[in-house]
Amino acid sequence: MNRQTTGIHHITAIVGNPQENVDFYAGVLGMRLVKKTVNFDDPGTYHLYFGNEAGSPGTIITFFPWPDAYKGRIGSGQVETTTYVVPEGTLDFWEKRLGKFKIVFEKVTRFGEEFLKFNDPHGLHLELVARQSGQNSEWAFGGVQADQAIKGFGGAILLTANPEKTMQVLENVMGLQKVGEEGEFVRFQATGDIGNIIDVKKSTLPMGQMGVGTVHHIAWRANDFDDHKEWREHVSSFGIGVTPFKDRQYFDAIYFREPGGILFEIATDPPGFTRDESKETLGSKLMLPPWLEEKREFLEETLLPAIPRVLEEDII
User: Fold this and answer.
1) Are the C-beta atoms of 51 and 60 separated by less than 8 Å?
2) Where would I find the VOC domain in this sequence (predicted)?
3) Average pLDDT for 190-206
4) Is 199 strand, coil or helix?
């Protein structure tokens, strides 16, 4: 059975100090902190989610901030670069904003598009591209107005230890379409209008090492819970080992590692981040699953600060 994901649901990465993480993604990039919770497998660590005004699928970047963790190494078996899409005509604004905060960037062209490439404070590789497709964000914060704001993901660049097999998975399993080839990149496109462009590098690097400044996994969208069940059967039909369903409170998830070493997740669009907070109050307090509520006082006392704040350029 042919199946097609609409694109990226979320990307999860490992970073360092949580306040530095919030300062960059909210204070500099203007994204909304839509959920402040903890890593369910390591409750002494935050799990922070940033996105548009509602944390819609296709806009969500999530982080495990481990202040004392070792530095990772970006390499094969990982997302090399996370691409964000901004409204057409706003790259000049973003150039000035990155310059204001003394963030070093470079301009590159790929498949006829101009990108601003830069790193976050913990070493994650990011880029901005302007495209017409995708709904504008309604969120404005810290000098970034809604008509300038990041819409969500443009896509990602993948590094793989086995480019041919990774590309086969993208086409045959996930249902993306090959749409171009340029230099060391092969471009694939999903059916959605955001988080839909994946560039695969044909060259290989030494395997990456997980740690601060690396992407842990990339998640693809499933429409709903029934669709999710069909996705698990579909992936399994290719002889790929898939995890059982996991309840992540705001979506259900399954995981598998594709042949090039990249950890893939498929996540449901529902129930979303308003299941335990109103849209107006998203990200304003620490949210815990029922089984961790008894530890709330301890966690609130021991977790480091992670508060969105409007920045001046000398803070970063």
Assistant:
1) yes
2) 7-131, 152-269
3) 97
4) strand
| Rounded distance between C-alpha atoms, residue 112 and residue 224, angstroms | 35
Kindly indicate the confidence band of residue 248, based on its pLDDT and cuts at 50, 70 and 90: very high
Nearest by Cα to 267 from 6, 1, 84, 34 = 6
Q: Write down the pTM of the prediction.
A: 0.96
316: pLDDT strictly greater than 80: no
Query: 29 CB contacts (<8 Å, ≥6 apart)?
Result: 84, 144, 150
Whether the CA torsion 146, 196, 61, 219 is positive or negative: it is positive
Q: CATH number of 8-302: 3.40.50.10490, 3.40.309.10, 3.10.180.10, 3.40.50.360?
A: 3.10.180.10
Cα(201)–Cα(217) distance, rounded to whole angstroms? 17
Alpha carbons 272 and 57: distance in angstroms, whole number? 8
What would the mean pLDDT of 273-301 be, rounded to a whole number?
Answer: 96
For the chain, the domains span 8-302
- Whole-angstrom Cα Rg for the chain: 18
**β-bridge pairing 263-271 and 214-222:** parallel
In this structure, the number of other CB atoms found within 10 A of the CB of residue 269 comes to 18
